[in-house]
Design goal:
The complex is a heterodimer of chains A (516) and B (332). Chain A has 516 residues and is of the alpha/beta class. Residues 321-332 of chain B have low confidence and may be disordered. Classes of the chains: A alpha/beta (516), B mainly alpha (332).
Chain lengths: 516, 332
Amino acid sequence: MTSALAAAQAPVEPFLTLTDVRKTYPGVVALQGFSMNVRPGEVLGLVGENGAGKSTLMKILGGVVEPDAGTITVDGVEHRALSVASSMSAGIAFVHQELNLFDNLDVAANIFIGREPRTGGFLRLVDTQKQREMTAPLLARLGAGFKPSTPLADLSLAQRQMVEIAKALSMNARLVILDEPTSSLPLSETAKLLDVIAALKADGIAVILISHRLHEIEEAADRVIVLRDGTRVGTLEKGEIDHDRMVKLMIGRDLKAQTAAPAQARGPVAFRATGVRTSTYPDKAVDLDLHKGEILGVAGLVGSGRTELARAMFGVDPVLGGTFEVEGAPYAPRQASQAVARGVFLVPEDRKAAGLLLDLQISQNISLPDLPRHSHNFIVVKRKEHATAEAQRRNLDIRAPAVTTLAGTLSGGNQQKVVLGKWLAMKPRIMIFDEPTRGIDVGTKSEIYRLMRRLADDGVAVMMISSDMEEVIGVSDRIAVMHEGSISGILGRDQFSEENIMRLAIGKTLTQGEAE
Amino acid sequence: MTKKDLGLLVLIIVVGAIVALINPRFLLPINLANTANLVGMFGLSALGQAFVIVTGGIELSVGSVIALTGVLFVDLVANQDVAWPIAVLLMLVLGAVIGLAHGLLITKLKMQPFVVTLCGLLIYRGFARFYTGDSTAGFGFGQSFPTLEFLAAGRSFGVPNSFIALIIIGAIMWVVMHRSIFGRHLYAVGKNEEAARYSGIKTDAVIIAAYVICQVLTVVASIYFAMYTRSIAPSAHGNFYELYAIAAAVLGGFSLRGGEGSIVGALLGVVLLQELQNLVNLLGIPSSLNFAVMGSVILIGVLADQQFSSYRQRAAAAKGRAPAAAEQPAAG
């Protein structure tokens, strides 16, 4: 780490320089005269709200989009535009949010897919042995704890990202661009990824890190460039990188702590789980009270059983034992429809697969759980659907041309608002949010936090599962931490700290001031 | 009517005009009435298939169910002296039970629709042949059921009653699929079953209902087929009928992946298939080439449709670039 720092501080020729790059799409300026450079062995943080121009910039670097003006200098050679091939041969590699890996192959085969070493003469068989031998040093460079022959299916998400990065190394990458690498990583794995970034640095490889999780940028970046409306609105050098400064530059104003929640008296128990066991941890039980008017944060490592608990509460996962109560009455949902009937709603983790139907219109998504109210004699009445959707569009400020717009064409934040609108149009008693702001920009995030608080103020019991520490601490009234299928502790506001959460999440107890 | 449906209608008219020019007998009332009768019968079974396909499923046992309920119905009415309305009712119940069984196997035991209904295809065909000892079931000489025969094989104002039945049932099914709550649920389940479940839809119930509707409509078609042929060879009756139904639905814009298609399109698909059948006969094409003609037209039709719609999308994208672009860079 120290040697890497030294390398970054030494004055080195930039590997990549962009000068006054412009890109205009009909009707919108995506980049207006953007300049930047990256030096070898430097970690450059790139932040900005959705729509700030980050993806256009990435497309230009990947050679997919041609800029209208400006120059791109790679290794001292000036280009007007890069092609996909020239970007690759220059050593620019991308690791995207959605990984391009094959579950059914081993690590080595994934790294050399399409470029396999051959053997067996004209048969051109894959030389599995050689492939693994070639992979081993790549994994060693990254400090990966798995073998070339490990099946990909056995790896965690962070390890899979390592495979992607190893693949980039195998193609002699000089610049690795990580696009939202941690948005779906649990806390413990995030640390691993940061180690890998340090390893790349030490090798003199430049890294561009794009993330909405600003504290990781704080931790990893040597320099941060903030983008807004297609221009660079600020550059922060190592010593200046700080969360509030980045947010202020990104949105052009102060974003005061998402919540500013007055610690208020919570209401009676709205939901109670007693000895509930779910499929991943059949011998562990969860006991949990959820009060009216509170936001209960649920923290813990990914795979600690949080999502399974939420799904069981919503009736989509089986409950193996124990009981639920809603407002004192027994509640045993076997299907989501029964949960919906009782006012227990879930905003699921995977927005695109489970949250909404991308091919349906906004209004059709919003009316879907409650069609009888939007119909007359079993016939759906469009007018009623549109009225409800229009109301939610105003309520949530869903940015779309019309309520008949297909949900799939919206940005992530607006899609999430449609999922919310679907439930807000009904009468929520218990709202469960599972990773509600994953992949959503800062502005929309704070809108969602405000909305959760509004719901709680209206007497709804809100439960929020999140792997984002800032979010859990900033938004919750209480935090329940899960560890391997049970609640390892519940923190009150005065006990909130990343350290306390982390200790409970890995199964340790608190040092002083035991959880309630 | 969607653009797709309209395209199909134009194709039907163009093919019809060409056939009529080459062989004017195409337009004779007797030929049109015969074709309409076939459209009516095959259309009923295509309607049923459409409900299953829109959920992303498939029902392969249709032809065998037509054979089984056909021989049972004829036997009950002709030999067992069961009053025909009761026999009809019994067959409808049998169809519902078969549909229910398929639906339960697919949803509760998580079997693949293709496998379940393929086994159904074999099983019901076997039962049909066993029931009659592989001999043909038919009405005895001089046996007559005037009301049943009128409803099933008669004509009103020169229009075959089977065709009228298709129009009435088709209109009802159009409302059910395209306007009702259940129809919305069907499309939602077909597009994304997981998301539908997370929206509180009883997805299993929706899928089971689709298979029940399919088999009930198949039985209605089966009774028309039985009264049309009047004698049923259980080893051959209804062979490939499921494939006609699937082909019609696909021609009409239904996607086998589910969540897409229109009832009008499926019915136009049936009309086109029957028109082609008719064309083979009228133009003196060897009838052995029948299937080859049908297969080629379906292939070309679906291919052309895909090309057109991707062309339309590109054109729309080019035209709507300005508003779309505002969203596009926002994706990152």
